[in-house]
């Protein structure tokens, strides 16, 4: 405010906490969306900027490490259930 009063173009420098948790204008305009993450619980994220009426964006939290391992191995890579279970039991996945 002092700089602006002195004729200097200035504004507040915000950190991530200020923007995601404390900015009432961004929250009101829908720029911040709370997602419920499996491990971290409710977390604020930037919403998808374009607001499309016919095809609105659907945000979801990031998956946890290894959350889709079985699906990728059996459905995408074509492993049998037995092969997947054998690799899982031997500790290959983590």
Spatial order of the strands forming the largest sheet: 1-2
Using DSSP, what is the number of strands? 2
Largest beta-sheet characterization: 2 strands, antiparallel
Segments where pLDDT lies below 50 for 5+ residues?
none
- Overall outline: elongated
Assembly type of the chains comes to single chain
Q: How many DSSP H or I helices?
A: 5
The share of residues in extended strands comes to: 5-15%
Mean pLDDT across every amino acid position: 90
- Indicate the percent of residues in helices: 25-40%
Please give the structural blueprint.
Blueprint: H1 2-5, H2 16-22, H3 24-28, E1 32-37, E2 41-46, H4 69-76, H5 81-89
Antiparallel strand pairs: 1-2
Model description:
- Strands 1-2 form a two-stranded antiparallel ribbon.
- The longest helix has 9 residues, at 81-89.
- It is of the alpha+beta class.
- It starts with a helix and ends in a 5-residue tail after the last helix.
- It has helices at residues 2-5, 16-22, 24-28, 69-76, 81-89, and strands at 32-37, 41-46.
Outline of this structure?
With 94 residues, this protein is of the alpha+beta class. The chain contains five helices and two strands.
Features:
two-stranded antiparallel ribbon; single chain; alpha+beta; 13% strand; 5 helices
């Amino acid at each position: 405010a002092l700089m602006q009063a002195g004729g200097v173009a200035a504004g507040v420098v915000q950190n991530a906490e200020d923007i995601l948790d404390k900015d009432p204008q961004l929250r009101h305009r829908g720029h911040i969306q709370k997602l419920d993450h499996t491990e971290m619980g409710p977390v604020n994220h930037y919403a998808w900027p374009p607001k499309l009426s016919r095809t609105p964006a659907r945000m979801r939290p990031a998956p946890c490490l290894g959350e889709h391992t079985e699906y990728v191995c059996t459905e995408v890579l074509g492993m049998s259930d037995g092969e997947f279970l054998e690799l899982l039991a031997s500790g290959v996945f983590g």
